[in-house]
Amino acid sequence: MTQWRDDQPIFLQIRQRMIEMILNGAINEGDPLPSVRQVATDLSVNPLTVTKSYQSLVDMGTVEKRRGLGMYVTEGARAALLAHERDKFLKEDWPAIAARISALGLSAGDLLKDGDEK
């Protein structure tokens, strides 16, 4: 059973899963996305939720609709998504991480140590 986070709409969480699949090569440029019905069944969500997540990928320009065939990853999607995810990380995630590092008094050396060293 899929665990959903309460801090973000489910359609955004599904979109993020698709982005991660494209970035890690599970879905390549030119490949079809899994069908809306299949994803909805696999994740036990409403097909409209999956459709909304796919539409947000279309809006980003990384997926295209092909009438009668489904949704396909566009050429250049991986590079565009990588740039998007890096920008999002630096603007949204990194400030909180940097603040936490500072609050804990950690140095760059502390962060770069091998996990076995303590």
Automatic annotation (TrEMBL):
Name of the protein in its database record: Transcriptional regulator, GntR family
PROSITE patterns: HTH_GNTR
A single GO molecular function term of this UniProt record: DNA-binding transcription factor activity
Organism: Pelagibacterium halotolerans (strain DSM 22347 / JCM 15775 / CGMCC 1.7692 / B2)
Keywords on record: DNA-binding, Transcription, Transcription regulation
CDD domains assigned to the protein according to its UniProt record, in alphabetical order: WHTH_GntR
Cited Gene3D superfamilies: 6.10.250.1220, Winged helix-like DNA-binding domain superfamily/Winged helix DNA-binding domain
Domain spans labelled HTH gntR-type: 8-76
